[in-house]
Amino acid sequence: QVQLVESGGGSVQAGGSLRLSCAASGFTDSRFSMGWFRQAPGKEREGLALIDSEGNISYADSVRGRFTISKDNAKNTLYLQMNSLKPEDTAMYYCAADLALGGQNIATIDPYFGMDYWGKGTLVTISS
To answer: Does residue 30 have a pLDDT over 80?
Structure first.
């Protein structure tokens, strides 16, 4: 049974940093993509960053240059380093995984149905 468990959320002031983690378990195939999504209250969910099954990385324009996605394959853990945080980054952040071949891009993935597995989320609150 695949499980994704996020951690690292919290409350910080604008300009600060946070690092989110997502521990993945239950995968029987090493070929899967992993990514980060977020959903703010009253807004649509959006994709932020993705590492596809070939190791290619893509970012949404809204976070490129401020957020960095990485993955420790030995630990099956995905990370999202978030710097220069803004109040508009306040949202529930979700980790997701997909058993897909490479060539995926975060910009073309449906933020609700485009991934096979989802974590329960971790809340990030940025105060001004």
So the answer is: no
- Residues 42 and 64: their CA atoms lie apart, in Å, by 23
- Give the C-alpha separation, 126 to 118, whole Å: 23
**How many CA atoms lie less than 13 Å away from 58 in the CB half-sphere?**
17
**17: Cβ–Cβ under 8 A, 6 or more apart, which residues?**
81, 82, 83, 84, 85
What is the mean predicted confidence (pLDDT) over 37-54?
96
Quick one: which of 4, 10, 94, 83 has its CA closest to 50?
94
Cα–Cα distance for residue pair 100/63, rounded to 1 Å = 24
Grade residue 107 by pLDDT with cuts at 50, 70 and 90.
very high
Structure confidence at residue 100 (pLDDT): 78
Sign of CA dihedral 127, 86, 58, 44: positive
Q: Are 29 and 99 in contact (CB under 8 A)?
A: yes
